[in-house]
Each structure stands twice: as C-alpha cells, then as structure tokens.
Amino acid sequence: MKILVITGSPRKNGNSNTLAEHFIKGAQEAGHEVVRFDAAFKEVHPCIGCNRCGMNGPCVFKDDFEFVRKHIVDADLVAFATPMYYFGISAQIKTVIDRFYAINGRIHVPKKAVLMMTYADNSRKKESAIINHYEVLLDYLGWSDAGQIIAPGVWPVGAINHTKYPEQAYRLGKNV
Question: What is the reported pTM?
C-alpha cells in the first residue's frame, strides 16, 4: 500500500509528529511504502479560489504542494497528523487540504484515511470540531476512515512519550 503522511505541527519534536513517526514505523515494518510531507516546514501558498486549475489542473502557484500532488493521487491511504490549534487543525495542514481543490477530480476516488490529533485540553467536546471536519472531508472525497488516534492532555513537547498513544499509532500503522 502507498501511504502519504501529512503533518501539520511546526514543532519538529512535537506530540503529533511523534504520533506520525510511530505510525510510519509500523506501516514501513508492515511493508507499506510511506512518504511524509511536513507542511509546517514547506512553502505552500493558500488557495485563492481563482479556479485557474478548474479543480483538476495545474495550480497558479508553483510551490511545495507539488510534492503532495505527486504522491496523493497514487496513495491508497492519506494520514493526517495535527495538533489542535485554537480548536481546529493547524493552519499549516489546513492550507494543504485547501489546495486539494486543484486536484479534486483526481483524488475524489476511494482511498483510506487516518487522523492523528493531539491537544492540551481533556474535553471531548473540544476535539469534536476536528473530528467532524475530518469526517466531512472523507465523506466528500469518498474516502473511508481507517482509524483515529485522538490524544488529549498533551501540550509540552514530549508529553506524549509516556502515554499509550505512540504505541497505538505504531499498531495503527502496522495494521492499516
């Protein structure tokens, strides 16, 4: 299986990136081909809705999104790893998702997806906005959920290391 992992944390050793690393390790050990796109360390211009792409053509911006474009079309599974930032997905990963517009016709096909999310709070109500966004996105694209790792109560870098969540992410990667 071909897997594209898209991360959204600007902290290199952040908690959601830790989940992504464990997921990738499990997936690679299971024999899957994995590529990773760290949105926070790339240049991805926000979509401006100009429609020059026609929802299925070249974008007016030539930036690091070309990597995503190249790998997402053939991916069997797309994994999203994001911290909760002000009750939503990080702006870095949202910018990448908004650029899906330019390849809508090519990715509007059955695929699997995974959500890995971390946040400082412990309120299930507060995580619901991201989960809902993820589920609506999958419904629109015709993708199916292959698993979710929702890790509350982790804020400082490394807080996730002494929880059950890295092992869950590893097992999810191994079993997708």
Answer: 0.97
